[in-house]
Design brief:
1 helix; 153 residues; 6-stranded mixed beta sheet; mainly beta
Length: 153
């Protein structure tokens, strides 16, 4: 039997509120960004790739979310960080992660913006390294992402 990984399905809806900046905004612009992240599989066989998708909706109709940065991260069942890489030759990484598609945003490296009222969708391809599990019972990992951006410069 091939070892498998237990990947926790993550679906989140985050409301990022920046009170000092939003006080000047109309009431209907009270939500700065809505974020939903989905992992399409709960369990994968070792070395079987899967996708993660994040949808970012700018809830402010007249203000851009600038310098958008998204960093995917993995943690062990005990909450310890797991090394990931975009370099498939990195022998220390447990997962290889690369952006597969981006719509509505030029990049996720802190250089792009989402215009007011617009939505962006990012999909990553994630491939577990051979070393990500050696147990026939599987290894549990948690996957998530950190989102940061600037409002009004």
């Amino acid at each position: 039997m091939r070892p498998f990984l237990k990947i926790l399905t993550v679906t989140m809806l985050l409301h990022h509120l920046l009170v000092p900046l939003l006080l000047a905004q109309p009431v209907d612009d009270s939500v700065c960004a809505k974020v939903r992240m989905q992992i399409e599989q709960e369990a994968v066989l070792a070395r079987q790739g899967f996708t993660a998708k994040m949808i970012l909706q700018n809830g402010l109709s007249s203000t851009s979310l600038e310098n958008v940065l998204v960093e995917v991260s993995f943690r062990t069942e005990l909450g310890e960080p797991v090394l990931i890489s975009s370099d498939p030759n990195d022998e220390n990484a447990k997962f290889f992660v690369r952006v597969d598609t981006i719509e509505g945003l030029g990049a996720v490296d802190g250089t792009a913006s989402i215009d007011g009222g617009e939505t962006a969708e990012i999909t990553w391809l994630i491939v577990p390294a051979i070393s990500s599990t050696d147990s026939v019972n599987g290894t549990l990992y948690y996957v998530g992402a950190t989102l940061s951006y600037h409002l009004n410069g």
